[in-house]
Amino acid sequence: MTDLVPNPTPVSSQNIFEKHFSNTKSLFVDREAISPHFIPEQLPFRETQIHEISESLSATLSGKKASNIFLYGKTGTGKTSVTRHVLTQLLEFAKGKNLPVAGLYINCRNHSRKYRVLSKIVEDLYPEERFFGFSSGFVYDKLVDWVSKNKAQLVVVLDEIDKTKDLDELVYSLTRANDEVTGGGITLIGISNNLFFRERLDPRTKSSLVEKEMVFPPYNAEELRAILNDRVKRAFAPDSVEDSAVNLAAAFAANESGDARTAVMLLFRAGELAEQKGLEKVTDDEVKRAKKKVEEEIITSMVSTLPKHQQILLFSLAELSLNKKPQAKLTGQPSAENVLFSGEIYDEYCSMAKKLKEPPVSSRWYREYISELEMFGLVSTTASGQGFRGNSRIVKLGFEPRKIRDQLEKELLG
Ligand SMILES: Nc1ncnc2c1ncn2[C@@H]1O[C@H](COP(=O)(O)OP(=O)(O)OP(=O)(O)O)[C@@H](O)[C@H]1O
Ligand SMILES: [Mg+2]
Question: What are 333-377's pLDDT values in tens digits?
Fold first, then answer.
């Protein structure tokens, strides 16, 4: 009988799969549990927020519309996890008691127009029907009909609500629907990590959307350590992560932003690195190496979701940082850092916007955008201080200009 696979001629004493095989013992027992998409049933240090949101939403269980809530706080502070957790619990409870409460979670990053949001809502409410191509008015009527017919309390979570392009119209539509339904009601929960967004809301939109508000503060190192220890227990095999590695990941994340996503990602990547090296334990070294990787991943995702004009602004900043000669102080000493002045950045931004056929925003908005980029940690600013001409602000990119330029070149210029 002939072999299915021809007899191999040995070329070396060690099979090439040997090294892969010896490394296949996984340090993870449940990778999912340390992924940033995972929502644990327990969300420590968020008891107050869970309590307040559930208390507010409990009105829906007795057939009343609850107050609309606006949740805000920096990235990775648990806004999405907490809200999804509370919504799931609410729906489970209502189902058990046979109460007409429904709930939907929508991420406005994926549904950034009123029409898309309304279509998504009715597609979820009428799973058998298709609404593609129907007018906005038709879709809106279907929503009002569904709520009225079922006399249901519908809770709509609009996550990353700052990504909505026509927010005023969306909020207006959803609040007006409450006046048109003949039974039931619609409660909104808006979520944003943009701390400036709330200030900028149109007063009417603000009074509709922000009937209650809640802030999610950053986690400190101690809290992050507890959160990580919990996740490590589920995700990794026993004794496969050194305590000091967990502490280091918590300290890095607390230092950067108090962001649990960064903390979780650091240990996840560190675990992968340790596995690739065939180590038995995740140590500080892997966390240090993971830090660079995770930072890059976070910046890439942050930069790609910025609004267009902030991308143009960041692109201009990166270009200037790369092309400008080091600034000399009046003392004649070149400064150590390649600093940029607010005025020159605005000029560069305007000419870049024109090149991209986008009308530049006013200098007032430009200053707001710089503050927003600073809030996201993408730039840092200081008053020009002594030694530099004029009384301008100095702006510095928070990350390697070349990386930012390369990414934005692709995003903006295609
Ligand atoms: N209290 C907590 N306990 C355990 N894990 C948490 C806690 N808070 C956040 N996390 C974890 O951190 C990650 C990010 O959390 P989440 O997505 O809720 O943040 P967010 O505030 O919505 O951030 P963003 O503004 O960027 O959307 C998730 O992996 C989540 O599981
Ligand atoms: Mg979120």
Answer: 444 456 789 999 999 999 999 999 999 999 999 999 999 999 888
Q: Encode pLDDT of 307-316 as tens digits.
A: 899 999 999 9
User: Is the confidence at residue 123, as pLDDT, over 60?
Assistant: yes
Indicate which atom in ligand 1 lies nearest the CA of residue 38: 31
Residue 217 Cβ contacting ligand 1 at under 6 Å: no
Residues 320 and 365 in one domain: yes
Q: Is the CB of 45 under 6 A from ligand 1?
A: yes
Q: Which of 221, 213, 166, 168 is nearest to 192 (CA)?
A: 213
Mark which of 198, 216, 234 sits at the end of a domain. Answer: 216
Looking at the fold, whether 327 and 200 belong to one and the same domain comes out as no
Question: pLDDT for 348-359, tens place per residue?
Answer: 999 999 999 999
Same domain, residue pair 143 and 251? no
Contacting residues for 354 by C-beta, under 8 A, at least 6 apart: 360
Output the residue whose Cα is nearest ligand 1's atom 24. Answer: 75
Pairwise CA distance, residues 151 & 186, whole Å: 11
CA 127–ligand 1 middle distance (angstroms): 29
Q: Tell me, using a 6 A CB cutoff, whether residue 192 lines ligand 1.
A: no
State yes or no: 204 annotated in a binding site: no
- Say whether both 69 and 165 belong to one domain: yes
pTM of the model: 0.86
Is 219 annotated among the ligand-binding residues?
yes
For residues 246 and 362, state if they share a domain: no
> Which of 172, 191, 216 lies at the terminal end of a domain, its last residue?
216
Q: Does the beta carbon of 39 sit less than 6 angstroms from any atom of ligand 1?
A: yes
Co-location of 171 and 101 in the same domain: yes
Do 107 and 160 contact (CB within 8 A), yes or no?
Answer: yes
Query: 229 CA distance to ligand 1 centroid (A)?
Result: 15
Q: Which residue has the tokens 């995740």?
A: 282
Number of domains in the chain: 3
| Residue 217 near residue 258, CB atoms below 8 Å | yes
CA of 77 to the centre of ligand 2 (A): 8
Residues 6+ apart with CB under 8 A from 296: 403
Atom of ligand 1 nearest to the CA of 35: 29
Query: Range of 78's domain?
Result: 47-216
Looking at the CA of 71, name the nearest ligand: 1
